[in-house]
Structure formats: structure tokens, C-alpha cells
Amino acid sequence: MKDKLLFFFRKLYRLTDKIAFYPTLLGLLGFVFTYVMIYLEEKGISKYLLEIFPALVINNTETARSLLTTFIGGLISIMVFSFSMVMILLNQASSNFSPRLLPGLISNRKHQLILGLYIAGILYCTFILVYIEPNGDKYQLPGFAVLFAILFMVNCLAAFIYFIHSISQEIQINNIMDKIFNVSKKRMLYLIDNEKYNEGDFPETKTWKAYKSKKAGYLQNVSAENIAEIAKEHDVKIDVVVIKGLFVSEENTLFKYEKELETDVIDRIVEHFDFSKSEFVDDNYVLAFKQITEVAVKAMSPGINDPGTALNAIDYLSQLFALRIQKKDKSLNYIDEVAYVSIATINFKALIFQVMAELRTYCKHDVVIVEKLLKMLLHLKSIVKKENEKYRDILDEEIANLIFDAEEAITNKRDIDYIKSIA
User: Fold this and answer.
1) CB atoms within 10 A of CB 239
2) How many CB atoms lie within 10 A of CB 257?
3) pTM for this prediction
4) With contact defined as beta carbons under 8 Å apart, do 271 and 215 qualify?
5) Which fold has domain 209-276?
6) CB neighbours (10 Å) of residue 14?
7) In angstroms, what CA-CA distances link 204 with 142, 208, 239, 256, 269?
8) Do residues 93 and 102 lie in contact, with contact meaning Cβ atoms separated by under 8 Å?
9) Which residues in the chain land under pLDDT 50?
10) Nearest alpha-carbon partner for 395 in 351, 365, 330
């Protein structure tokens, strides 16, 4: 039962990343609030307020209808305009920066809440308009409910002004990269603070039984703590061999287990692997390296030709790698000082190679970019700690590769000599 509840809550959490989740939720709340107001009107709240505070009640039927009709048309227009602006933002981000940025921009909570407020306002005004009696006297008119429609409209206008400000900031690449960096930084700091790994705490897994994946998609999340509890319960160790964030095909090995397990136990373990067709930095910090690298590469393309953005991207990559150096290449999940689950992670060598391979390929002809990359690698080398001494050799190899490619692409001898003098 516990596993089923955890599975349900994980799926519910995933729904929050959908662009329609919060608008739908707020729309339903607006619908419920409408009927709360209708219930209060049936109890005579407008009649009571008309006698006590007449200024709070709209007591003219034509005025109420005109207001509500205008509000509905205005809110629909605002919502269409806002949706168009979001589409323009997504199109520009995809064309000028990277298509990988789209999931993060679509999942912007603030914009979803604003869209939901519009929908709630439209539903509220529509149902209150329908409720108005065609030939009723002033006490049958939902005057107090109409006052709330005015408040709804004022809030929607304020939200629209905020939306225009937010969208103008959201479309700037520096703000996009800064958001990606902050989310990734938060994720890496959490992993660094909570990771445990001691050499020899987990046995060799070459002869273990393998479970083949029945699904295809990006491995978005692995609930290592819950898998560890299952492993402890059945006195078995689990080795998750797929790196989170990578695409898993059907029949690929998903995990290995130490001894024979019942089918229902394996099914319980599989439930704690979440697959998705899209990727989010919140779940996988490696995606931040990919996104920022692609922004730099796209900025250096002939169609964009924006080396300033590429230089900014390298600054963010330098900060991310400085954090990644502090993290170990392997991760184990412990219960009572016993390692029950081993989680595969992308190692530092593979990560920096993937980033540098792209940047070297597309930026090796630009002296300024090569200089910036070289300084980044030298900085990383200077902050490597003794326990991660092997990272120095990896960085030396990347420095050598960068200089080699630069010598092949740059024809000016003075530029080459300058680059070599830095190294």
C-alpha cells in the first residue's frame, strides 16, 4: 500500500510540470467559488448588504450585465494575447538558443498561474451572468457577486501587467542561463551534501542477474531511498546501471540484483523508476551542462554570430564544473551504514569531454573563445582537491586537445603563440 501511495504522489508531482495543470486547477477553483457565491446570494447576502452597505452592491440589472459581458470579452482577449506572447517566447528560444530550453520555459509556474487566473475569471463572470434573473427585482440581482467580478477583473489586469514584465525578462538569454544555473546549482549542492561513498562498501556486480527495461524514454528519476528499503526488506543489493537523464530503450538493462527475487518484488522496484519523454534540470543537473553548452554553440553559428553570449555561457559552465569537481563519480544509498543501492552517475571525465568536444568543434576558430575555455580549464585544475587528484589528468588532457584543435583551425601564428603562453 505504501508503494502504491508513493507511486501516486510521484505521478501527481509530475503533472505539475504540465502547462495545463495549474490553469485547470485554478479554473476548477473559480467554478467552485462561483457556486459558493450563488449559494450566498440564495441566502440573501445582496439584500442584507444593500440595507447595511449599499455601496458594495450593484443593484441595476443592465449595469451588471454590461459589466459582466465586457469582463468576459476583455479577459478572453487578454488570455489570447498572453498565450500568443508565450508562443513567441518559445519560438524565439528554440530558434536563437536551443530547443532543449522549451520544457523549462513551458513549466514556468508564474505564467501558468496567470493563465489560470484568467480562466477562473472567465468562468466566474460567465456563470454569474447566466444566474442573473431576466425580470427580477433588485433583491434577486446577485449584486455582491458582481462586485467580486469587478475585483476579479482588477486582479487579472494586475496579473497581465506583471505578465508583460515577466515575459520581457524571461526572453533574455542571460536570465534563461541564470535560471538554469541556479536550479542546477541547488540540485548539485543537495547531492554533494547528501552523498555517501566509501570504496569497498558495494560488491562487484558482473555476475548479478539483470532486469531488462519494458519501457522506453528518458530515465527522469529514481527513488533510491524507496528501492533501498525494499532491498533491505529482502536482504538484497541493487545496482542501478542506467544513468539518470539518459534515454533508455526497451530491453536495455535497467538494474541488476544480487540474488533471485519474486516477480512481485521486482515489480515493486520497477515502480520507483520514472520515465519521461522530456527532461528537466530540477531532476538531472547534467541537463544544465547540455543546455548551456548548446546555447554557446548556437551563439557561435554563422546565423546567430553572438560570441558575447558564448562567453557568458562559458562563465556559467565554469561555475557548474567547479561544483561538479566536489562531487564523487559514484553514489551509494545506505540504510544503517549498509549500502543497499548503487546509482550510476555520469563521471567527470565523460561530462567534461561531452561539453568540450562540442565547444572545440564549433568554437576552435575563435581566439577569444579558445582563450576563455583555456582559462576555464586552468581554473578548474587549480581548485582540484587532493582526494580528486585524477581530475587533474583529465583536465590536462582536455587542455592538450583544445590547443591541438586551435592550432589546426587558427592560422595566425601570433594568436597561437598567445594561446600557448596562457597554457
Assistant:
1) 19
2) 20
3) 0.77
4) no
5) Aldehyde Oxidoreductase; domain 3 (3.90.1170)
6) 16
7) 74, 9, 10, 11, 20
8) yes
9) 3, 138-139
10) 351
Region of residue 44 (left: phi > 0; alpha: psi -120 to 50; beta: else):
left
Q: How far apart are CA 89 and CA 207, in angstroms?
A: 51
Q: Where are the domains of the chain?
A: 2-171, 180-194+282-328+340-422, 209-276
Residue among 215, 243, 245, 213 nearest 342 (CA):
243
User: Edge to edge, what strands does the sheet with 338-343 contain?
Assistant: 209-212, 253-257, 238-240, 338-343, 331-335
CA angle 97, 99, 102 (to 5 degrees): 100
Q: How far is CA 73 from the centre of its chain?
A: 34
Give the cell for residue 4.
Answer: 502504491
Compute the Cα dihedral for 153, 159, 161, 167 and give only its sign.
negative
- Number of Cβ atoms within 10 Å of the Cβ of 316: 23
164-183: buried (b, 16+ CB within 10 Å) or exposed (e) per residue?
Answer: eebbeebbebeebbebbbeb
- Confirm if 374 and 318 have CB atoms less than 8 A apart: no
What is the tens place of the pLDDT at every residue in 68-120?
A: 999 999 999 988 888 787 777 777 777 777 666 666 666 678 888 888 999 99
pLDDT given for residue 231 in this prediction = 86
